[in-house]
Design a protein that fits this description.
Shape: globular
Distance between the termini: 24 Å
Strand order of the largest sheet: 1-2-3-4-5-7-6
Bound molecules: coenzyme A
CATH architecture: 3-Layer(aba) Sandwich
Mean pLDDT: 95
């Protein structure tokens, strides 16, 4: 089940974030700041009262942006990432956004392939996005 995330979910979200990302992950303070921002879309996927994944998106002018999407490693390949992404895209469409963008580390091929399978395209490579030598692809999809 997908539901809106609240600041009570902060610990669980940070736990998943730590399991999913290494150095280039967001701090707890930053995730709290994102969750508190009512203009963002923050949602979790919950199974048996446990959070298995989350997504946070922001909206600016005509563009939605996926700030973070992560599924607990034990719960991957079950369609949870897809459900979370769909829910953010639906929200963006309701808000009349024209497109949705994101950045993903260029060596994170699991995520790049996931987005390609969801009809996102690679717009370009941003050199050193996550630090020196750590590039990211900018990807997007028209809504
Ligand atoms: C990317 C991520 C969110 C995908 O979540 P998930 O729940 O495993 O994805 P889903 O099960 O919804 O995948 C749906 C479809 O995407 C595609 N897909 C997912 N992972 C893929 C991979 N590694 N290679 C190719 N296609 C993939 C498949 O078509 C899959 O459908 P299937 O069930 O027929 O295989 C997850 O791997 C993750 O949390 N990764 C670490 C964090 C991260 O990289 N986040 C994104 C950074 S912006």
């Amino acid at each position: 089940m997908i539901r809106t995330a609240t600041i009570q979910d902060l610990d669980e979200i940070c736990r998943i974030e730590k399991l999913c990302f290494k150095k280039e992950r967001y701090s707890e303070e930053f995730i709290l700041y994102l969750l508190e921002n009512q203009n963002n879309y923050s949602a979790v996927f919950e199974e048996n009262k446990k959070i298995a994944g989350y997504i946070i998106a922001s909206f600016h002018k005509n563009t939605a942006r996926i700030i973070s999407l992560a599924v607990h490693p034990a719960h991957r390949k079950k369609g949870i990432g897809e459900k979370l992404l769909n829910s953010a895209e639906e929200k963006a469409k309701k808000l009349k956004m024209k497109n949705i963008t994101l950045e993903v580390a260029k060596e994170n091929m699991d995520a790049v392939n996931f987005y390609l399978s969801k009809r996102y395209k690679i717009d370009g490579l941003i050199k050193d996005y996550y630090g020196i030598g750590k590039g990211a692809y900018r990807m997007s999809k028209n809504l």
